[in-house]
Design a protein that fits this description.
This protein is α/β, with parallel strands linked by helices and 644 residues long. 28% of the residues lie in helices and 11% in strands. Strands 3-12-13-11-7 form a 5-stranded mixed β-sheet. The protein has a 3-stranded antiparallel β-sheet with strand order 10-17-16. Strands 1-2 form a two-stranded antiparallel sheet. The longest helix is centred in the middle third of the chain and has 47 residues. The structure holds S-adenosylmethionine (SAM). It comes from Xylaria hypoxylon. InterPro entries: Class_V-like_SAM-MTase, SET_dom, SET_dom_sf. This is SET domain-containing protein.
Length: 644
């Protein structure tokens, strides 16, 4: 019995031999042009060569023969290289269907899957009846459409999915669809929470969200002790050193550091200085805001002690004393104080987090004071809990900065950012689980970044596995080729060349998506809000959950590769896409995308404004026969007749 590693090595060997043979063969590639529908026939037989008798024909081992005709039409016919993102004809679903390759593929694949603990298995969770289900019926869901290409065991590190496709009736309600068409024209989505038109306060607030979600760390540790180490730039490039780092001085090349070390050390130093500077900037504004408070308190104190003198007079006295301490003219101090007072007002409304995470725009905002009206400040007040949840859960040490101004350093909100549900009226955030207890007293939700395979349903197989496209066959050096842009895909950022959804796949930095779970005001329980704008075509996130099958009457996304139907269940674990509500005029849609030969479902923006609720169209099928009314409120709803 061969081990899994041996089988993988065997596959790789076979693949590379075929590739070598193709290179060696004197193929007139130019004449491919003349073939209307080119195909290649690959035959491989595993034989026992130990059979001595040359007169006996070597027989192939039963069951281990590959014989496949591979359609190359798509390889030789130029395709659009546009991203699967919006705006082109290259929307993933349709493209992916057409390039469904055969089992004659030679790309080895081995992916590890995290099995879910049996107690997490949705099959074993009862009491979830009456939840919703979503379906993608745009892929090759029919077994018959597979053209008999199920025999993929010979070429993939994954074992083929088992049979036993669950019986899920076609007319099951609550099934959502992945869109398989160009985007419809749509009008601008209306913001439900904080309308952030790009001006004054809106810009400031968007800047705060961007800072919060950029992964920036404001921690006093960045300025305390970081620079106590020996000077990092002691080997700075001097005029006597050439740019390649080779010393031209008499001490010779041995004393010089190589350029890569210079570069790496400078990168570290630069990062530290940038972090420290960012942290100092935050400290600066909070201290200045606090200074204004102390200034006002001092004036009040003087007034209380000497009520006969006017407040203006007392203020002048304190200003004079301060300008002398700062070493500025009184006018200079007045100008600066006006800006610092702005910081204080922002802090009073939006809390300390709004100051600490404000971008550079806060200076301009406070200098010109455009938008410092009551309405704007009320909006900031409503935002405060949301900002604090995001700051506490994504930047655990930010409150330590506050001890400089005598505020408690303990965070108020712990856990995952989406463990908290924000209220639009500024009332305190609610724990996520509490918003579901009325339906399920034991509700818990585990936030995960990668889908997990329900082992009880699929063993160690991933039913989302898709055989690589025929393009992949022509580019043997690339292990994984994007079926949309045809570039090489890799989890290793240095190797990856596919930028279809760079915020999700193949790029170095993954920052938390700027979204927050919020309480809908009109009976839809929770929803998902975009804190920053998502450009049309940008990925909001991947639909993550438990890959399972056979669930009925619970919320699932249904999808299929050529040979396997599967469901993604978000009832107990998943990501924020679980909170996306339906709209008949949605501002996002689900699209299929294949990453490393594994099918994914990506929530893609159709143009989402900062502060808007993120919505998708669940499809008619989802609502069919469902005892619920659509509350999206869209007048233009094609379900208007049904639900209003
Ligand atoms: C995937 S969940 C979305 C998140 C959900 N609102 C929550 O709080 O968990 C789908 C469910 O949300 C509710 N929902 C979503 N969109 C809705 C809409 N337009 N009108 C009414 N209910 C909606 C329905 O109960 C639906 O079954």
């Amino acid at each position: 019995m061969l081990s899994e590693e041996q089988i993988t090595a065997l596959r790789q060997k076979v693949a590379s031999v075929i590739a070598d043979e193709l290179t060696r063969a004197n193929i007139d590639w130019a004449s491919f042009d003349q073939l209307a529908e080119p195909s290649v026939c690959i035959k491989a037989e595993f034989q026992d060569r130990s059979v001595d008798d040359s007169s006996v024909e070597q027989r192939p081992l039963p069951g281990l023969t590959i014989s496949k005709v591979i359609d190359l039409t798509k390889v030789t016919t130029p395709r659009s290289s546009a991203s699967p993102a919006l705006g082109g004809n290259s929307i993933g679903v349709a493209e992916n269907q057409n390039v469904e390759p055969t089992s004659g593929t030679i790309v080895p694949l081995s992916r590890n899957h995290t099995p879910i603990a049996s107690h997490d298995a949705p099959n074993q969770v009862s009491g979830d009846k009456g939840k919703h289900s979503m379906v993608n019926e745009n892929s090759n869901t029919s077994d018959g459409e597979d053209n008999g290409n199920n025999s993929r065991m010979a070429i993939s590190g994954l074992r083929p999915s088992r049979g036993g496709i669950p019986v899920v009736e076609d007319n099951t309600q609550r099934q959502m669809q992945v869109v398989n068409e160009n985007f419809p024209k749509r009008r601008k989505a209306e913001a439900v929470g904080y309308t952030m038109k790009p001006s004054s306060l809106d810009k400031l607030v968007i800047g705060i969200w961007e800072q919060l979600h950029s992964g920036v760390s404001v921690d006093p540790v960045h300025i305390l002790g970081e620079f106590m180490t020996p000077p990092l730039l002691r080997d700075a490039i001097s005029p006597s050193q050439d740019i390649a780092g080779l010393s031209l001085s008499s001490s010779g090349p041995s004393s010089a550091s190589p350029p890569d070390r210079h570069f790496n050390e400078t990168t570290v130093l630069c990062r530290k200085v940038t972090q420290a500077s960012r942290t100092c900037r935050s400290i600066e504004v909070i201290v200045q805001a606090r200074w204004v408070e102390h200034f006002d308190a001092y004036v009040e104190h003087l007034k209380a002690n000497d009520p006969k003198i006017s407040v203006t007079r007392h203020r002048k006295t304190v200003s004079a004393e301060s300008s002398s301490n700062f070493g500025w003219s009184e006018k200079e101090l007045r100008n600066k104080m006006a800006i610092w007072r702005g910081y204080k007002e922002i802090k009073d409304a939006g809390g300390w987090a709004s100051l600490v995470f404000a971008g550079m725009g806060i200076y301009r905002f406070c200098k010109y004071r455009i938008g410092f009206d009551n309405e704007s400040m009320q909006r900031l007040r409503n935002l405060r809990p949301a900002l604090e949840v995001a700051a506490d859960t994504m930047n655990q040490n930010w409150r330590r900065l506050l001890s400089i101004v005598g505020e408690p350093p303990e965070r108020m909100y712990s856990g995952h950012p989406h463990d908290w549900v924000i209220c639009l009226d500024g009332s305190p955030p609610i724990q996520l689980r509490k918003t579901y207890l009325q339906w399920d007293p034991h509700f818990e939700y585990k936030h995960i970044d990668e889908s997990v395979i329900d082992q009880a349903a699929w063993g160690y197989d991933d039913p989302r596995w898709k055989p690589p496209s025929s393009e992949a066959l022509t580019r043997i050096s690339s292990l994984f080729v994007c079926q949309d842009c045809l570039n090489e895909q890799s989890d290793e950022p240095k190797l990856n060349c596919c930028y279809c959804f760079p915020s999700l796949f193949g790029c170095a930095t993954f920052t938390p998506p700027p979204v927050q779970v919020f309480r809908t005001p009109n009976g839809r329980n929770n929803g998902l809000m975009a804190l920053c704008a998502f450009e049309r075509g940008a990925a909001v996130g991947e639909f993550i959950g438990v890959i399972t099958k056979g669930l009925q009457d619970v919320d699932v996304m249904e999808n299929a590769t050529g040979s396997a139907k599967y469901q993604i269940w978000q009832g107990r674990q998943g990501n924020f896409t679980r909170f996306v509500n339906h709209s008949c005029n949605s501002n996002s849609q689900y699209q299929q995308f294949t990453w490393l030969d594994t099918q994914r479902i990506v929530l893609v923006s159709k143009g989402i404004g900062a502060g808007s609720e993120i919505t998708v169209d669940y499809s008619d099928k989802y609502w069919k026969g469902l005892d619920k009314k659509c509350l999206c409120g869209e007048k233009s709803s094609h379900r208007k007749g049904d639900y209003y």
